[in-house]
Structure formats: structure tokens, C-alpha cells
Write a structure and sequence with these properties.
Layout (H helix, E strand, L loop, with lengths): L2 H27 L3 E18 L2 E11 L5 E6 L1 H4 L7 E7 L2 E7 L4
Antiparallel strand pairs: 1-2, 1-4, 2-3, 4-5
Length: 106
């Protein structure tokens, strides 16, 4: 394998990934952080890949008091803690989940 082949196979995809990440970061910079009361109304997971490279992603659909909904990817550590029916304060920015403070019933 020549050096040029290695550069094309490794370098080009890396540069493209960096460009996409920078564009995404710049576009999120113009979107303000939002907070609102919401309820978790659905959960799902998506398994991608196969063999030794399996990626599992978790999504939660939140519904706002006005009936609007948003589905956000959530970290695995929080996906297991969120239960359909949980109400609380959702924080997000664009399509990025930032957190959910569960409302504790008394």
C-alpha cells in the first residue's frame, strides 16, 4: 500500500468528518438553549452496524403541554432512567438533548 493510498483512505474521511463537525457546531451556536415542561411519551432504541462494531442509540419522545412533540437522542446512561410517563423540565439545543430534570411527586 502506498502512502498516497493511505492518505486517501484515512486522511480524506477524517478531514470530511472534521468539516461536518465544525459546520454542525457552528449551526448549533446560533440556536439558543431551550427549557420547557415536558413528559416522556415514547422510548426506542436503534441498533446499527454488525459484527464487532455495533452501535446502539437511544431516543426519547417528549411531549409539551401544547401537544407538540420532539424526539431526541439521549445517552445510554439516561435512557434507562427515563420512564414513559415521566414529567419534568426538558433542556435541549436544536436537536441535541441536554438534560431532563424529573418532577418528583409528593
Amino acid at each position: 500500500m502506498t502512502v498516497a493510498t493511505v492518505v486517501v483512505l484515512v486522511g480524506v474521511p477524517t478531514v470530511l468528518a472534521i468539516i461536518v463537525a465544525l459546520r454542525r457546531r457552528r449551526s448549533y451556536g446560533s440556536v439558543s438553549r431551550m427549557q420547557a415542561e415536558a413528559r416522556a411519551v415514547n422510548k426506542r432504541s436503534l441498533i446499527a452496524g454488525g459484527g464487532a462494531s455495533v452501535d446502539q442509540r437511544y431516543y426519547v419522545t417528549f411531549q409539551f403541554p401544547d401537544g407538540n412533540r420532539v424526539e431526541l437522542a439521549v445517552p445510554a446512561s439516561e435512557a434507562g432512567m427515563l420512564i414513559v410517563g415521566d414529567g419534568g423540565r426538558l433542556e435541549w439545543q436544536g436537536s441535541s438533548y441536554l438534560g431532563f430534570a424529573r418532577e418528583i411527586l409528593r
